[in-house]
Design a protein that fits this description.
The chain has 286 residues and is of the alpha/beta class. 43% of the residues lie in helices and 22% in strands. The chain folds into two domains: 242 residues, 3-Layer(aba) Sandwich (Rossmann fold); 39 residues, no CATH class. The structure holds adenosine-5'-diphosphate (ADP) and magnesium ion. The site of magnesium ion (MG) has 3 residues, from helix 1.
């Protein structure tokens, strides 16, 4: 049987300076090729959970670590951060803090050279990564001249050139307008579907998550509150609200109609599905 991309068992973590456990008893399996979203209010432990998947916890941030995290079968405690982070490429919200170069091309080259990729392989890796993200035209631009969305694409491109098995993204669209946010998600979906890349994304925009991811994990106070298909999770609008997560409006509407016995069909997520629901109710079909 092939190994899971990530497997955690009874994972607990408290930062050295933390008062409470940032992660409590997390048992999670992410298979290769999954596209998983993580949502939850601020301080719920989302970033910490991602850190356990790229080795930042326990190698960079120290503290009390209990349980086990395996990334592609490798125990993150026994293996170096370098080894783990080569499996899981990370893109974080603070994009300017993540970039090191002045030119787009150099940003991509930097990681490749750091990884000791042979010279004759570098050019094809750069071209391939630029194409995958659709930013070949930005290759010779200075990073400071780019928009937020373009910068985020460059960061993604630089990570992809390193050919990770899994992408970890922490609120990558936080500073982006709706259109650029959509674009980032579309790129991720394509990478996931065409290349089988495992994608784990922390994101606050529930509409984007419900449109693009299959599996949604909701975190609250260091624990996993829900972990299921998006549609299943969204049925719990009240519990989500209490955990600081607002359901998309169409979902709240259909949940309310279902509770009142006015609707019995599947919860709509997309607008066209909501349209079907309203039509069915109006025509007295339900
Ligand atoms: N470097 C740190 N030192 C001490 N406590 C931290 C540190 N980083 C995060 N925490 C605490 O861990 C908890 C989870 O934080 P975090 O994983 O950043 O949540 P989220 O990403 O969901 O907002 C919070 O209570 C936060 O205060
Ligand atoms: Mg965070």
């Amino acid at each position: 049987m092939s190994k899971a991309m990530v497997q955690t068992k009874e994972l607990c973590f408290k930062y050295k300076d933390g008062k409470e456990f940032a992660l409590e008893n997390i048992g999670l399996t992410i298979e290769k090729g999954e596209f998983v979203g993580i949502i939850g209010s601020s301080g719920a432990g989302k970033t910490s959970l991602l850190y356990t998947m790229n080795g930042v916890i326990p190698h960079h941030y120290r503290g009390d670590f209990y349980g086990e995290v395996l990334v592609d079968g490798l125990d993150t405690v026994d293996n170096t951060m370098d080894r783990i982070s080569r499996l899981s490429g990370s893109v974080f919200q603070d994009i300017d803090g993540q970039m090191v170069a002045t030119l787009v091309e150099d940003e991509i080259l930097f990681g490749l050279e750091n990884y000791g990729i042979p010279r004759d392989e570098i050019e094809s890796r750069v071209n391939e990564a630029l194409e995958k993200v659709g930013i070949t035209h930005l290759r010779y631009r200075t990073i400071s001249s780019l928009s937020g969305g373009e910068k985020q694409k460059v960061a993604l491109c630089a990570i992809l050139a390193l050919k990770p098995q899994m992408l970890l993204l922490d609120e990558p669209t936080a500073e982006l307008d709706p259109q650029s946010s959509q674009q980032i998600f579309r790129i991720l979906k394509e990478l996931n579907e065409k290349e089988g890349l495992t994608v784990v994304i922390v994101e606050q925009k529930i509409m984007l998550l419900s449109e693009f991811v299959k599996r949604l994990i909701v975190m609250e106070k260091g624990k996993i509150l829900f972990d299921d298909e998006v549609r299943e999770v969204l049925k719990h609008s009240q519990a989500l609200y209490e955990a600081g997560v607002n359901c998309p409006r169409v979902v709240s509407l259909s949940n309310a109609l279902t509770q009142r016995g006015l609707y019995k069909g599947p919860a709509p997520i997309h607008l066209d599905e909501a349209e079907t629901m309203v039509k069915e109710i109006l025509h007295g079909k339900i």
